[in-house]
Structure formats: structure tokens, C-alpha cells
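[step 3/7] fold_predict: job queued, chain A
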Amino acid sequence: MTTKRNAARPGVVYSTQHGRVCPRCGWPVDRCACSQPAAKPKGDGIVRVGRETQGRKGKGVTVVSGVLLAEAELGELASELKRRCGSGGTLKDGVIEIQGEHRDLLVELLTARGFKVKRSGG
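[step 4/7] structure written:
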């Protein structure tokens, strides 16, 4: 196996076994995760706002799902919504959870941002 080294970035940049190697992650270029475009979020384009209590000892959270944004933008949106509601929350697997009952406010805020929004659940 023959390797060439790059003085600017230490590490393997070419290998006779794998071919070109990504200088950032060290994986072969055809399997490199850092140079691949970000995966598009899946969904039908409708943001659903609902309420859940399951697994939270009766405490309710407002759940926002179906937002077609990249992970970083989704995190910024979650932070803004938590600030506007004045409560805590989290972002799990592309679903925003806001503590408390805030469905009406969230539907209004998301509609103002240009999303197509539906209330889900009861």
C-alpha cells in the first residue's frame, strides 16, 4: 500500500487500497459523509401541532412535527418557539417538544412564518 502525505493537513490523502481519501474525515471520497449534501427532510409539507402526555407522568407537552427544515435550522426554530412560549422544550428526532399547552400560539407563529399548519389530536 502506497500513501502520500499532505503537509498542510497531516494524514493520508491517497491510498492505493481505497483511492482518494477525504482530508477532513479520513474516509474514502466515495463514502465520505462530510462532502455529501445534507439529506432532505422527509414529510408532506404540513406542520402538525399536537399535545402529548404519554410517558410524562401526566405532564403535557406540545409537539410540533413535519417541519421541512435542515437540522441546524430546526434547532434555531425550536429555540425561537421556546422563547416565544416562555417555556422549556427540546428537539428530538426532528420533532420539537415545548413544555405545556401552547398549541394555539404555535399554530399562529408557524402560520405567520409561512408554514402550512394543522392541529393534530384532540
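[step 5/7] annotate
Residues 1-10 have pLDDT under 50 and may be disordered.
The CA atoms of residues 23 and 101 lie 48 Å apart.
exit 0
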